Amino acid sequence: MAKSDSDVAVNEAARGFDWALVRSFLAVLDAGSLSGAAQQLGAQQPTLSRQLAALEAQLGAPLFERTGRGVAPTALALAIAQDARVMQQGAEQLQHRLSSQRARTSGIVRITTSQVAANYLLPPVLAALQAAEPGIEVELVASNQLSNLLRREADIAVRMVRPVQASLVARKLADIALTACAHEQYLARAGTPTRPDELLRHRLIGYDRDDTLVRGFAAMGMPIGRRQFVLRTDDQVAYGRLVAAGAGIGFVAAYNLPWLAGVVPVLPALKIPPLPCWLAVHREIRGNPLVRRAFDFLAEAIPRELAAAAGGHRRNR
Question: Which ranges carry the HTH lysR-type domain (predicted)?
Answer without folding.
Answer: 17-74
